[in-house]
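Write out the bound-state structure for S-adenosylmethionine.
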Amino acid sequence: MADTSHAPKDRGGMDWIIPFYGWRGARMGPTGIFDSHRARAASIARLCGSGTKRVLDLGAGAGGTAAAIADLGHDVVAIELEPVRAGFARDLAAERRAGDLTILEANYFEVALDGLFDVIGHWDSFGMGADTDQQQLLRRIAGQWLARDGHVLLDVFNPIWWAVRHGQVTRHDWCGMIELHEFDPIAMRFIDTWWIDGDEAHAHAQTARCYSPADFALLLEGTGLVIRAMEVNGTPLPTVEGWRSMAQWQDEAFSYHVVLARTDGTDTAGASDRTADSYTANSAEVRSPSAE
Ligand SMILES: C[S@@+](CC[C@H](N)C(=O)[O-])C[C@H]1O[C@@H](n2cnc3c(N)ncnc32)[C@H](O)[C@@H]1O
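---
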């Protein structure tokens, strides 16, 4: 596969994160609260049970999801590494909201946090480092931050969606930027390169590891977390006789959503009763709930 001059050379490294999001954040400006942020916030009641929660948002970006969650009355602590986007999030936190919203400009691999959280969200962010980094973060979540009966809501990038879009170029008229999708099938990472139209020489790229459900289940082993549910766009995974067709995998969504709980937890509120065994590579298939 041809490499591109803009892709991070150490693809499991994370030195690109602050330059990429700082540059693109400054270009795009504050994003405010999208409908998709409101939908994520609403999914907490569906997937984690009703009632007011203490929520941790890891990699909060410009803060739209964290603000939408606080608007529902939950108390939110949001962690964001990159200063420009953390500043946008602080602006949202300065506005009056139904619940508390605290923005910490910090690295979630290093930050020390007080107390436990009922819900930990890691939206559109999982996989930026190497597998060992992902496991380190999952262990921190299970061992230091997640309440015994709490839930983790995590997006996992879908390798098939990214693979079939290798080489695709998209123009984003609203911000005058061009995006190039690439996929490295050896490292199983996407490389997503952006530049201001007419200035490809100053392109920046982001990259993340993509995991199939079976590979994600293997990554999870020994972290203290188990899978409670998986879904795509709100639909439980899989839906048809234990299988989801390649056409569905390649067209539906660039990530699928996983609900995790502590291995020593007891709560099943809102989540399906599916166990991690359903998703392991040793399973003959990824079974539907009706097949169990
Ligand atoms: C793809 S953006 C997603 C933002 C937001 N969660 C959303 O869905 O809109 C990933 C964000 O994670 C932040 N990030 C990456 N590594 C981080 C770390 N170690 N600590 C805190 N934030 C981090 C990046 O700066 C970036 O703003």
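---
The CA atoms of residues 177 and 196 lie 4 Å apart.
The chain has a mean pLDDT of 88.
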